[in-house]
Amino acid sequence: MAFLSRHLGPNAPERASMLEAVGYASVEDLVNAAIPQGIRTAALPQLPDALSEEAAQDKLREYANHNVVLKSFYGQGFSDTLTPAVIRRGLLEDAGWYTAYTPYQPEISQGRLEALLNFQTMIESLTGLPIANASLLDEASAAAEAVGLMARSVKKGRRVLLDSRLHPQVLNVAAARARAIDIEVEVIDIRAGIVGEDLLGAVIAYTGTEGDIFDPQSVISDLHARGALATVVTDPLSLLLLEAPGSFGADVVIGSAQRFGVPLFFGGPHAAYMAVADKLKRKMPGRLVGVSIDAAGRPAYRLALQTREQHIRRERATSNICTAQALLANVASMYAVYHGPQGLKKIAERVHSLASSFAASVLDAGKDIVSDSFFDTVTVSGVDSASIKAELQDLGYLVRAIGPDKVSVSFGESASQADLVVLAEVFGAEVISAESSIPEKLVREQAPLQEDIFNRIHSETQMMRYLRTLADKDLALDRTMIPLGSCTMKLNPTAAMEPISWPEFAGIHPYAPEETTAGWRELIAEFEGWLAEITGYAKISIQPNAGSQGELAGLLAIRRYHVANGDTGRDVVLIPASAHGTNAASATLANLRVVVVATADDGSIDVSDLDAKIEKYGEHIAGIMITYPSTHGVFDPEVREVCDKVHAAGGQVYIDGANMNAITGWARPGDFGGDVSHLNLHKTFTIPHGGGGPGVGPVGVAKHLIPFLPADPNGPGVDPAAPAPVGTGVPISSTKYGSAGVLPISWAYLAMVGSAGAADASAHAILGANYIATSLQESFPVLYTGNKGLVAHECILDLRELTEVSGVTAADVAKRLIDYGFHAPTLAFPVAGTLMVEPTESEDLGELDRFIAAMRQIRAEIQEIIEGKVSYEDSVIHHAPFTAESLVSDTWDYGFGREKAAYPVPALRQNKYFPPVRRVDEAYGDRNLVCSCPPPEAFDYSTDSTEEN
């Protein structure tokens, strides 16, 4: 059976039934009516013929075999590690974990929220700071976020110091992002001390890229004396042995958790982290998991403060991060749980012992090293770096050559004594033992990770059961459809998921020499070509490691294009109210002024308001950002007209491609007016969402913008000490190919569906959305529709009038859906008081009808309130959701029965999900901010809880 028939939910009879309901004879007729003819492409994209699942894997195996897996001793922020098999199989490769959505509905996300809270607690304990976020995208962009955080906190400073000892990719990305928001950048060797005023802060390496350890305490004190802040970049494994940066005054600590069990993945995805001092907690970017209570007074986790969905703040946002690296953060957190503090310390001590023995050996052989103090990386100087690197490569080893006369050797978890012998011999040395090379005053005194969770789950049986316990608390795609609008949650094909953990893909260092990465580069080149063909653009870059970063890359390309043409005054970006929230946030980070264009009554762009804004801002217009189809769930028929007007005003057109699941194969943004677009591989192109990431946000551009695509962060022309030359792009992520490790998933999806299959997937997404809109129209009015009353691939259900007459809010409906076994649609975005529904093409008719039946029954429950049969305060909706504990309790103080609460429709008796907590009290959690693991006694259920506390 062809893969496409496995991917599409409705079979032929179901499709016919759905078409009859929406009033069309065929899927083609429906699409022809829904998508404006003026944007339609003349022919299908030219992709290869669809492959079977087996043939696609065979082709991927061929690419994998073109790579050469070297034993990695390269370092530079990426270390070889060992992923425990129980974590790989029980988390990374388990659909209950990788198909989950971001935990915006906390009642059905307690498992992954607990895992992320473990991650935060781990980082807090290691860094010595009181609060950490639930992951950032990568180490380099985390450094950029830290610079932005310091700039927001130190209003008078406009100069940031970057330690020249930082990894090159960290220097380059942080410098480029800082300059984009008009911060003056100075690259210095921080060990020489600091001079001058007007400082907002410094980013300090602890340890340096060549391995040296420097005590930053005096520099941090000097920064504080000048009113500036200190960010420290550090390796979390080193903090098992090194003193915590928080103990000597660091305000912000960032780094990568990659070496906590996450494969090299040719550069990503890897979870970065950020921990901050208490005074900075409300300015911290990224997501923050906090502890609150539920309606029964029990502890319950949820996303805290403004981090729940900061991009909804649009132009007032301080970060545009939407997708982070939740799945990889969870792997890292479980790695710490499984090994515990003693196990982690043994790994760190072993790594350090190997490095110390190597250093002593080469010194004994008469060689020089750059520093006597180090953790895992030893840099030998005064040698022929090219010949040594080549000799070791022939022996199967990868080391880092720095200039003509330095070689760095960085030891990871997988390094062995036998490896040490080989490495030493190439340097003309024999292995000798050595004492620790960590300065005595920087040796860690207080043991980290003393929390209960890191000290009780160390057997495989315990870990297997812990992972299952957490997964069972959650609703993911393996249990139910996730009908979230604008966040496509479609099938993640298993055949596409399997290859990412093959060693020939997962075990490649991102800076390995090109002759060893031919397979990766062949796959990437072919995949970028396919995306260019699908979008109609001249070239694609897959470097951005999230959709938000793709947006930023595209906007920076537009800004730099104008500057290169002498149009330095073009700093206004027009953003329709119907655009994705991250658009405005990304524009702010690109230092562009946001001007909102109003929405017409039908949900489309208000062209008259657009004309007024163009007239007002004229030569200041850099461009417009259009989400197509819009977040209002409609195909704007005037999109070409809008593009033409902006082009006539001298602006560029950014078409947000996050909703490509509605037009792939039918229309190409590059053909109907776009100059640049990003895509979300974790949506249209089937990379799993993973509870909040990984994501990949490729950016495509027209020919004239090619020079401004993201630059290689380790490219020879990238100099952090000076602004990027006019006419070039700037780096966005830590590596040239971003989160390459998950690209085989999207490659396999396109290989298995081909051109016709990709178009068929879009058509069925449109069919599913219109079937739901038609079926629920009488119960919940659809807010916006397009041509002939049709919607695109999603629809907005308007509850505002029902709320006025009943008191029932869209949030109430979201919570009640949990009792029916459903994840809620998108709540209150882009319009407050509404629910946005997107079924995707992967859901069969039975699942769609199950959702429709649930929504109709909830509408009947609302009607009981409207008719006065029950008050809102006493209704089942107001008190939803219900745990199994609450339903079997001897105390039941409600006017409705247990059966109505738990089994509102008969089908639930066969397959019932019970949430682990009652409705979470969001306000309580914000008033009582706790963002680390609570003690075990907090979960003592031996005492009675207080219902409706």
UniProtKB/TrEMBL annotation:
Its cofactor is pyridoxal 5'-phosphate. InterPro entries: GcvP (IPR003437), GDC-P_C (IPR049316), GDC-P_N (IPR049315), GDC_P (IPR020581), PyrdxlP-dep_Trfase (IPR015424), PyrdxlP-dep_Trfase_major (IPR015421), PyrdxlP-dep_Trfase_small (IPR015422). Residues 6-427, 436-706 form the Glycine cleavage system P-protein N-terminal domain. GO terms for cellular component: cytosol; glycine cleavage complex. It comes from the Bacteria. Signal peptide: none annotated. It is an enzyme of class 1 (oxidoreductase). It catalyses: N(6)-[(R)-lipoyl]-L-lysyl-[glycine-cleavage complex H protein] + glycine + H(+) = N(6)-[(R)-S(8)-aminomethyldihydrolipoyl]-L-lysyl-[glycine-cleavage complex H protein] + CO2. Its EC number is 1.4.4.2. Residues 761-882 form the Glycine dehydrogenase C-terminal domain. Keywords: Oxidoreductase, Pyridoxal phosphate. GO terms for molecular function: glycine binding; glycine dehydrogenase (decarboxylating) activity; pyridoxal phosphate binding. Pfam families: GcvP2_C (PF21478), GDC-P (PF02347). The modification N6-(pyridoxal phosphate)lysine is found at residue 683. GO terms for biological process: glycine decarboxylation via glycine cleavage system. Belongs to the GcvP family. NCBIfam families: gcvP, PRK04366.1. The glycine cleavage system is composed of four proteins: P, T, L and H. The glycine cleavage system catalyzes the degradation of glycine. The P protein binds the alpha-amino group of glycine through its pyridoxal phosphate cofactor; CO(2) is released and the remaining methylamine moiety is then transferred to the lipoamide cofactor of the H protein. This is glycine dehydrogenase (aminomethyl-transferring).
